[in-house]
Amino acid sequence: MPRGVCMNRSTVLPRYALMMTAAVGGLLATAAAAPAQVETKYETYTATAANLSVGSGEALRINVFRWSSDDERQKALSALGEKGDKGLPGALASAPSAGYLWTSETLGYTLRYAYKQALPAGGERVMLLTDRRLGSWSRVPWNVAATRDAGDDAFTVIELRLNRAGVGEGKMSFATKVAADHAAGTIALDNYDTAPILLKNVKHEPGRDRPR
Length: 212
Prior knowledge:
3 helices; 34% strand
């Protein structure tokens, strides 16, 4: 301490208290200014594959973390109109993952497209597109039982229809073409009503907190 300067306890303690008060006040102000962290939810759908020559009996779990934006839906429709369904993977390749589809295979399938539409009578209609054909990880592509040709699609489009109780059925692009539903603003399955049911016991589980 410099000569001639004397600081006793009565001087140091008040200054220390003021410094601590200022520091705590700053921390509280920062905490108050920070936006509240919102817990994000994800949707889960479960189903059992049926009427397939490869894949029947498989249990599916679909976790949807987000729904495709209007821009992503428009890109998918434009690609379908210009290049057919072969253009869908390229148009959606850069889109952030919308979730994952899980089978008994070790790896899951990334969802590049997810759209949900409320039905007039209640319930919902869900459209999904995976970045690979189901069965690809096992190198045995899934296919409908009525044909031997597994096709060469590098993706799978799934359409689910559920009632207001969250129970329903699903169909996949193995058995029908992908079409544009301009009224709903989404890609969908062509001739859904006449296509075979490939997913049974479809259920929509309550939303859960997304893993961090």
